[in-house]
Every structure is written in structure tokens, then in C-alpha cells.
Queue: 2 jobs
Job 1
Amino acid sequence: MNDRQRFNATMHYQWRDRVPICDLGFWAETINVWKQQGLPGWVSGGYDTTTTDEFFGMDAYIGGPNVNVGLCPPFEHLVIEDRGDHELVQQPDGVQVLRKKYMGSTFHPERHLLVDRASWQKHYKPRLDPDTPSRYPDWDEARRCWQNSDYPRPRVISGGSLYGWLRDWMGCEQISYLVHDDPALFEEVVTTITDCIVEVHQRAFDNGAQIDACAMWEDMCYSGGPLLSPETFRKYLVPQYQRITEQLRRHGCDVVWVDSEGNIEQLIAPWLEAGVNCVFHVEVGTWRQDPVDLRRRYGRDLLMMGGFDKQLLAGGKNRIEAEIQRLAPIVDEGGYIPFCDHRVPPDVTMSNYMFYLHTARDVWAKQVNLKPFGALATSDPVRSPTASDT
Amino acid sequence: MQQLTEAVEMGNLTDAKRLTDELLKAGKAPLEIVEQGLSPGMANVGEKFKSNQIFVPEMLIAARAMKEAMSHLEPLLVRAGITPKYTVILGTVQGDLHDIGKNLVGMLLKGANIRVVDLGINVTPDQFVAAVKEHNASIVGLSALLTTTMLAMKTTIKALRAAGYDSVKVLIGGAPVTAQFAEEIGADGYAPDAASAVDMAKKLVTA
């Protein structure tokens, strides 16, 4: 089986040679630390996982031709001010953020361009025009990939974001006020975003797109729950999600995942009602979200990815192995692709991560048809737990 | 007074301002309006937030209504020499640039009539120490969102203790923070959410 066939079989609870072995990624800081622990210099961290996937022998869970359903053209990337180890930059979404120059993990929004109806109409609405040609791939080339039944990677189309983008464009506080002060504008913005997504997808389908999954992003929860009430969510967002997911299903795509960190518990049911049926990187967190518990409560309707507590990787190897074993039954059942619940942080040693990966390949994938690891720069990390690991 | 409490709870800015003015005209003392009208409203909001009956937007609009009403009362309170009993120094620890949770805590603390000095994000231990000295603070509230930056909480507590502020209480919170971690690093209190932070702050200063 190739990565695409394995992904599709897993997400439809069908027979597969093994579960996909993959991960969300690694902070750049983690990779830098690991280079002192034996990781070769050619491996890099950050959002592009090409080299880490190659080194760690990962399967792909995303690939294929894509369309751009977001702001098009993006705002110009500008460094506005140098503040020593920090810099103030304008991002492609128009937001000015303060960020560290040498670390990839955090930034702080300093100024938002989207503040009211006038700024929406001037700066953002024109960038959600589905007619913008740069949204689209070369259709001939894309068709060749879509029509290739042996295409090696899952063909995943971007489904955009209904709340997360707007939250970023306005800031968490301002979007919260907007929902109450000007719900008509809130509704207009999410409807316009959806109009753009649906129309762009339609043009892909009209050009022969065959899609395995759709990837949406929201990040709309924190440790205590969602950033807006389930009632507001149902009123304004569910109908828009439904427009997207019903169109996808009409064209054969029945896996729609949403990437949302935080405690998503109260949004799972409305997401399922909206046709969003896969939780992308179930985050364990301090609220202890648990894929086993989610499967027990939602059954096979809820597909899952992620769900392995990354914090365990910084601890003892026995606990890592125990958690891998605990998740194994639902991995075997299907509908679940396990990996770390977020990017691997730098307090995890490379030895522990390699132990995790070796054990996952043993227990979850049963060592079947795995991709090879890259060569280490130094000796092979320890595999077996010892008494001192407990 | 009950109507004012309800206006704050509902985040009704216009009514909160109007009712505050009416109560002042009726001869109510500013502190009485704060303690019997506004603060109970925010306390109710905190409780509802804690139990997921309301969410971030509802809490923010309530805090905004409270703030507007307070802007009518604060000059009068200052003129009368009335200041909040307790001061909290609040900040996101060094290396961390997240502030939504910290801001929510700040709003609810103000709602409980506690003075808040918000140092912002990426605050060094020395900045916390200097602020405690400058504002004679009773509590330091530390926030972190990342497992990597929460370690700076320990450094900050060490710096406060090394500077001789043994009696200043340290309250910590943030997505990756747990009660166990608070105990390990010598914090005086931990709060899992913004409303609990207010409860814990009150508990710490009255202990």
C-alpha cells in the first residue's frame, strides 16, 4: 500500500497493511537541540517537515495539488521595526506582530488592520475574490495527479477557516466584541469567507479534482473550552461549514478535519452536525482529552488524528511505552492516526523521541512495510526502557 | 443596585453607565456602588464563566460595561482617598508572548475591586521584582502558555524571594500549568481559569 491508500483505508475503517506512522512536526528549537544529540545537519525543523519526514521515515498524511482559499493576494511581508532579539513584522494576513527573530514558536499581535466594516470592505473583502487567478494550480498538471489512481500521498484540499482567520485578523478581544456589537458584520464576513471557499472548491471539482480529505483550521479553543459559545457557533458557523462539507461529500470527499488546539469538547458535537468529522491532533493538554474516551463516546462517527501526549516524551520510557500500548486497540480498530498532540518541544531528548518512534513502529505498525530511518550522526539512541526510566 | 448588577452581567454598556449615574445622583456613595452593584455583577460573570454557562465574548462585554461604569466612579473614589486594598502585579513570563488568558484574569480582578498593574508580555524576573517594590503589591500573578516558558515562573519566584519579598504571594496559571507544578516551583497558588484566579487571589491575601 502507498501512503494514500493506507490513509484512506484507515479513515474508512477498512483493511490496511498498517496504520500510517507520521507526526505533526517539531519546533525549530527542538531540531537545533537534537543536532547536538546526533541528528544530522541536513535535517531542519519548523513548518516544513520534508527533511524530518525523510529522516524519521514518516508517512505522508497530506499532499496533492491544492487551491488557495484564503486572502489572495496576501499582504506584503514587511519587517517594520528591529527591536534587538525581536522584530515587528507585517504578516501575510495583514496583522502586525512582535516575534522573536530566532525562535519559531510564539508571536504577539500588536496591530490589526481589520477593525470595522470600512476596513473589512477596504482591506479584506477584495482579497476573498474567487476569480483571482493565483488561487489555482496549473489545471493540466493538477488533473494528472487527481486522475492517477496510484498517486502516492493523500490528496488533501484546504478548507480554510471560518473563525480562526477572522480571530487572527481582528484579535481575540475585538472579534468577541464584534459577535455582540455587530453580529450582522460577523455573519457577513464568515459568509463571504465561505462563499470564496465553496466557489474555489467548485472550480477544482469542475477541473476533475478527486479529493481524499479536506483540511480546515480554527484554533478556537483554550484550556477551558471554546472562545465563543456553542450557541453562537451553531447559529453562525454550522450553516457555513455545512455548505462546505455538503459540497465536498457530493464530490466524494467524506473526511473533513479541523485543526483546533485547546479543549474542544463542547464543539465536537456541533462540528459533527456540520459535517466536520475528524479532529486533527487531538490535544491531550492539562484538560486530558483522550482519544480512547472520545472513541467510546462518539463511536466511529468521529475520526481522529494526534492524541499522544507530547509531555510524556520528556519523561520516562516506560510511560511512553505504556501510552502507546494503551492507544493500540483504537489504532487497530481504524479511524484513528496516532501522533503527538502538538509539535515536539525542545525538552524532549532525541533518545526519547527515537524510543517513542521505534515503539510506535513496533506496536502500532507492527513493523510492516515501514520507511527506513535516516542515518544518525552519532550512535543509535537507546531503545529499551531501563529501571531508571520509570 | 440590582439593576446595575444585571446590566454588568449582561454586558449592557449603556445601562451600566446610566444606572451608575442615577445611583450617584440619588446620593449613593461611589464605593457602595462598586461593592454592591458592579463587583457582584462581575463575580456572577466569573462564576458563570467557570461553569461554562458563558464564554469569552460574554465575559469581555461584561468587563467592558464594568470598566465604563468605573470610569465614572474612579475620579470620585480618588478624590475621597479611597483606593483598592490590594494590588496585583500581573504579567506573562519571560520568553512568552501570549496574553489572552492574562488579560481575562486582569479584567476579573479589577471587577473584584483589586488594583491591577499589568506588565504585559515577556516580563523578566527583574521587572516583576521592580514592580512589586514600586507598587507595594500583595500578589504577583504569572501567566505562561508554553511548556517551555512556564519554567520562567520558577526563575521569577526565585528572584522575588531573593529580593526579600517572602510575604508577597505568587499565583500562577496558563494552559500547561498544573497545581502540581505550582507546588514544585514554590508558588503560593494556582488557578485553572480566570474566575478561579480571582477566588485564589482573595484567598491568598486573606490567609
Job 2
Amino acid sequence: MRQGESVLQRRISLGELLDGESFTDVVKGFVELYKVGIKVFDDKGAKLADIKVGNGDFCGYVFSFPEGRRRCTATVSRVKDGPLGLSHGARLPVIDSDDQARAKGMVTVPCFTGLRYILLPILWEGDTLGRVVFGPFQPEDLKDFPPPSLKEISEGFDTANATRFVEKVRRAPETTIARVLLHFARLMQTMIFAGQKMFLTTQLHIEATLEQNRDLEERNKKLEEMNQKLKDLDRLKSAFLATVSHELRTPLTSIIGYSEMLAEGLAGPLNGEQVDYVRTIMDKGETLLKLISSILDISQIEAGKVRLSFEPMDPFELVNSSVSSLKPQAQKKGVTLETKLPPRPFQSTGDRDRLRQVVTNLLTNAVKFTPKGGTVRVLLSELTHQPDLNTQGFRVIVEDSGVGIPADQFDKIFQSFYQVDSSSTREYGGAGIGLAIVKSFVEGHGGVVRVASEVGRGSRFTLILPALPSTQAQVNITPPVTAIQAPADDRF
Amino acid sequence: MLFDGTLPDVQLNHAQRELTVKIVYYGPGLSGKTTNLQMIHQRTQPDVRGRLLTVETHDDRTLFFDLLPVFFSTAAGFKVKVKLFTVPGQVIHNATRRIVLQGADAVAFIADSRRSASAENNSYWKNLNENMRENGLDPAQVPIVIQFNKRDLPDTRSDAEIEEARKKGKEPVVGAIAIRGIGVLETLFAVLQSAFRSLDARAGLTKNIQLTEKEFLTQVFQNIDTSGTELERLFPPRVKPL
């Protein structure tokens, strides 16, 4: 989007730079002090100030004769619109030598009445923005009044009258008037500078506000569009998940169910090998079902749809039930499962089902990554003060004598779909979401997960859980982050 | 100057025989943009420059922008105005930055050389590119010169690191300690030279108004006190400093 052209991009006129009212006041004050009239015009000839003093009666008298009027008009138009150079009757002013440097462009224009004007261009940043017309004044070197050019305008010209009127016009040496004009020029420079600053500040303020507004509107529009898109996507995702979950689970349940019936001989006896095959179908079916449930879980967490429901629970039961659900798998693999519970039972609060899922996930991993003959140990601590949480709580430790995790992978293993060994030929299966779920649920309880491991020796996962999770924590259940780094295009 | 949908036009007014060259000093807050202009102002003959105008906001007295005009007439009688602007560094003044950047003929990007400032430099570099795009300025046509300022502070990048940064792009790179006047005129020279070359390519200054790069740079720098800078030999100072 393009904004309009800024005031910074165009030439600013003298009228815009000067504050009209205060400028007129300054000119008025100046005129009163020095008794010489001042007119200020911009470069298009528009009048910005016109303060007269002393010459009214005299000029009025001259103006009353037709020829006087004609000559007067010519002079006025010469000083107002004529060139600022040394032509059309203008000449260099008589000026003190030390004023010369500053008097650049100053010219004197004599009036046919014997009076005089001095003109000065208003220079600003190399531009001529307009001119100051100073006068008319009565030059001190004017000896023979009235000059023939005035007397000749009419036979009825009354010298005595004119002399009486001209006395009211300021009489001074041209050098003095020139110096006063230089003084005025300096004052103008200051006023233009102040005016420019004020003008630009105000204009820029307006422009910046409009620009900001435009920016915000544009951003709002984009946000709205994005919001709509996200809503659509979210709806699509929910629908997709529901469908997938239904469409996958329904046939899978049938596969498992029919396998089970086959295995149990409901459709007639099977020989040993057949039973083995059918049980494999069942096992793999269960694994697939769990995987689908986990994926659904993680999508629920990511969608922020998971609400933990806290209720009184028994940590002993939590550990025991998780361990017993893993027992068959451990047995089958030849891995010893040991449980160590504290001497006294205690009560806690938490989401029983989710925590069971947490411990089960850890146990599943432990059994999965521990070779035959290894040991998986589950330890439950007593209820004590937990410095990590700064509150009462307990720990559940799951230890194994498995393959271990390299230390530089400790952070990554909690990201969704992350596997330490992500090669296609990896030894261990799984989608890499178990630990992501663990972390989200534990943190949802206001707890933490710690990992310690040594490659080839085993791993230890420690859950530190508060006895009473704050209700704040469950709202903040954070989805596991998949670290995405923007490509580096830094110049510095 | 900008027109919708077309390439930025050169501010060349044949009727008034006038050429305006707009240079914008861009960069993070406190990187030394105003200091650069103050130094140029100090060293430039008063009769070829205007006052250094500093426009502040009404409310919080933070800087809006600075403006320093430098002007001269060419041998062929063309009036040339070089307008040096700074943008406000504060993050919230992005709208103003964009307005000031309108119609720029070249940009001097003032970066803080300290390693700790890299993130800020990068974010303003991105901001500059975004705002140029928003203003319809084509980075291929509007040259940028990078000044690595504050070379005297601890934690400043080494020469090798600056060399490294130079190689990352095509922009000329100048080291500076603006507060002591070091590198300021060299940056001005580089940015004016780039601006002239780009304008010459677009508007044929040499052909159309008989203004050569040499005359352009000489007209500016003969009125600037170059003593103690790398430009001293090219443009010997006419008036010795006090």
C-alpha cells in the first residue's frame, strides 16, 4: 500500500512556514519601532504582511492625480513583482562595508517621488521564497524636494502641501535603512526556522498518525483473514481427526475382536502355529489402536482441548496399576519389573487417568528399550517438600538398564514425533509422541519431568508432582513444541 | 517522489532547473544517525547548508527526524539540493520511518559495531527492507551504504568480523567513530557517490543536465572541511579549521 506524498517530499511555501498572526504582530512591532513600512510577499506574489507607517497622506495626495496614480502603480508593481536583480531601475544599495557580505541580493528601487524602497530576497536553503519590501523612506541625500518627476505629474501639484505630507515619512540615510532591513532579515530567518519546525512537526504528526492508522487497519484485516483461515483449518482438522479415529478404530476393533474369537477357538479349534499367528494379529492390532489413541491425544493437547480433571487419588494405586498393565509385555520380553513403594501410603490430587497414562508411557519406553535380561525399576517416594516445585509433593522414578539416551538429545526427546534414532532402519518402533504426552500432562499438573541417562547403561526418568496441583497449571497445559528455526538471512 | 505503480521518479525538475537528492540515515535507536548529521553540519560552510533541523514529537520529546540541506549550483546552472534526513530509531515510530524514507535516493545504514547490537542491527535491516518495499523503493535501484559506528567501544567487532560482514552483501561498508568525526565524511562520500551513480543511470544526469559525478562530489566536498579524513587529498580543505 502506498500513502500520499509526504510534506517532506514537496516544496513548502513561505506562507506555510510562517505563523500568520504572530508574524504580522512581529512586523507591526518592527514597523512601529523603525517607522518604515514593510511588505512581505511569497514567490508567487501573495502578500503575507503589509504594515504602513507615515506615508499614507503623502502617497494619498500623489495618488489623487491621474498621472500620479499611474506612476505610483508602476512603482508598486516594480517592487512587488519586478525582478530582484539590478534591472528595471533597481541599483545596488548604499551600504556600510561590514554589512555587504550579508546584504546579498539587496537592491534599492527609487520612487519617482524622490522616496525610496529597498528590496531583499528571502533566501531559505538555497531557494528564494519571497521578498521583503522596505519603505518607502525619505533618503537623507534627497535635497531638492519635489524632484521634477513628481512636480510634473500635474499643474495643480501643490509643493507646500506635498512637503508638509512628506515630512511624516521617515527620513534616514540609506545605509541606516539597509542595516535595519538586514536586522529584519535575520529576524525572518529565525521565524522561518521556528515556523518550519512547527509546521513539519505538526504535519509529520498528522501523517504518522494516518500512516499508523492505515498500518493497523491493514494488519487487522490480515489478522481477521488469518483468523478465519485458522478457524476453517481447525474445523477441518477436528472433522478429519474424528473421521480418522472412527474410520480406523471401527475396523481395527473388529480385527482384534475376530482375532480374539479365532484364538479362543470360537470358530473351531486351531493348531498351535495358527494360534500364534492369530495372537500376533491381535497384538499388532492392539499396538495400532494405542498408537491411534496417542495421536488423538497429542492432537487434542495441541488443539488446547485437553482439560485435566483433578480429584483425590492414591499414588500407590497409580504405580501398581501402571506396572501391572506392563507386566505381560515385560514378561514376554524377559525384562524384570521391580516396584519399590514407601512404607506409608499417602493421598494426593491429580488427574488419575492421565497420570496413569504418563507412568505407563514411561514404562512402555523402559521395557521397549531394555534388552532381554534387563531390569526396569519403578520407585515411588514419600510425600515430602519438593524443592523443584517449592511445595509438598512426590516423585515417581522409572529406571531401566536399556540403551540410554545421549545427553545432547535430552531436550529433543520431549518434542512430538522425535526419535533419537530416526533412521528408517531403526531398531525400535513407535511414533515418538509418548514423551511429548508425558511432558504436557505432568506440566499440566504443575510438575516437572527430569531425565538422566548414560548411553549403554540405562535411563532414569523422574516425575516430580505436587500433592495439590494449582488450578492455574491445568489451564496452561502447553503443547509440546516442535522447534522450528527460521532460515538465517541476517545481514549483521 | 513516488507515483502509483511506476518506478520511483527522480526529483529532477527541468522547469525550475533543480535536482533534489534525498539521502536517509537509517538504523537502530542510538546508533549515531543524528551524530553523523551534526558532524557534517559542523564541517560544512554555512553558505551552502541550511540549519540542522531537529523535529521532535510534541508529547514525549523523542526524536521525529533531523534534516540537513546542502545546496549548490552546477556549472551548467542547475540548482542541486542534497537533503540529509535521519529517521527516528525508536521501534514505535515505524510509521514516521516509512514517511521519511519516501523517495530516498540512497540510504546510509548506521549500525552499532558492538557484537551485542547484532540482533538490533539485523532487525532494523529487515525493517529497512520492509519499509523500502512498502514505499515502492527497489533495493536494486536505491543503493545502501553501511556504516559500522562506535568502533571505539568495548565489544566492538574486529576488523576481520567487519570484513566478514562486508562479504555478506554488496553494500559498501565504512567503519566509523561518528562522535569523533571519524568515518562520517567517508560515509557521506560513499552514499553520495552511490546515489549519484544510481540517479545518473536512471535519469542520465551527465547527459541531461551536464552534471558529472566528479562535479557533484566536488561541489559538495569543496565546501566541507575534510581535514583529518581520508577525503583530505581528494578535496583539500579551503579553509583551515580553527
